[in-house]
Amino acid sequence: MANKTVQKFCLLGAAAALLLCILLKSWGSGAAAVTPNTALIRCNADAAPSVIYGDGPQMKMWWSSNANGSGIYYTASQDTPVKVLERSDDGWDSFRICNPSVIKGSFYTNGQAYTYAMYYTGTDQTDGNSSHIGAAFSNNGIDWDKYARNPIISSDKTDSDHSGVGLPSVCISAGGQIIILYFDSATGKHYTAVSADGINFTEKTPLVNAPEDEYSTDIAYSQTEGKWYITTQSSISEEIHIYETAEGSLASKWEQKATLPQTASEKQENQSPRWTRYSNGTIYVESGSGYQYIYHGHTQNSARSVYTTRWEFAVNGDRQGWEAVNITKDTGPVEGFWTFITNKENPHLLSPAIELPASSYSTVTIRIANQNTDSAGKIYFKTAVEDFYSEDKSVSFTCTAGGGWYTHHINMAANKKWTGTITGIRVDPVSEGTVATCGIDFIRVIE
Known about the structure:
The protein is mainly β. The chain has 2 domains: about 5-310, Glycosyl hydrolase domain, family 43 (Tachylectin-2, Chain A, 5 Propeller), CATH 2.115.10.20; about 310-445, Jelly Rolls (Sandwich). Helices cover about 0% and strands about 45% of the residues. The chain is built from no helices and 31 strands. An 8-stranded mixed sheet has the order 1-20-19-18-2-3-4-5, with no helix packed on it.
């Protein structure tokens, strides 16, 4: 477990921008666009954004920053950021506070009822060691009261040689219990614990299936899928990883679904990625696109990226980052179908930039209606090692003609170069158009 004991939860070092698909968007709504990391907030050393969707008309974000001294900041939509939680004048969190995780529910503490709870890392040491997890409560997400008996979680082995505990992420279960996931640097392990009141956590359980040399940064539960989504950052390579659990428990196997290296720009040293979640901590999935959003901070500002392996084209005009080449009469998706005329040689669709582990995904599935007489379809791909399209990185398939809708499953693993990280996909429905219509219902990459 190399380097586990030297992680400084509150020293905002570089990690990585994350995601399976780097489809970066501005804070507001709108179609996805393939762009560099899009600035949302400008502070100093932004990190660990906790984002809630669906709690009122505006999206809400809390994050940690070193601007004007260590603290937790807040904004709704793109309002001016305001500091909402300060480090204490003395005591366990008097040097730095960071890594907030916010949920909404019913809480009673300090002799008062509250509707929001925030869990955060704090330390009084300048080197970031001896950190603990504390709680604060609010009724509007802006005015916070720290729990009078903080900290609520500490390491059993906290000393000057270890960071202690940190990186809390919380979620409210269907039964109303609060589940927390955190990392203990002294033991080099991830733990879960549960609480009925948001203060007293019991059933502390080490997670034996959590990856080594990585720190969990956020969890989000999918009630429809019955599994957890987890983001982590590596302690040794500055990569960021996405995991999904095999079952409905965090103690079940963590299956790695995506890996991204540190982004190219020197200003995009991203860290502490967090999911966009509903107020109880369940994962938010955008209607129509099926996108899951992840926010991440770095030394200049915050940005968001998209995690997806499916392009459903369900929103009118939204090509979801795909580009049409050698195609005419392309108005984009309409009522769930993307139709166009293929009247040139090599008509094709180019995917947005992606970071897809070939070991986790082997099949491209497409639903197409083809009115051309030609039926010679082909899927090209790029890799991190060979970041260009070529004939030796392609798999052919028969794109059934006649105009009916057919679903084609193309086994990309049949090509020995489908390995490592896939960085792009090109879909050629036919080799040569015959001035006829083609339609795309969806494009998916599956296991």
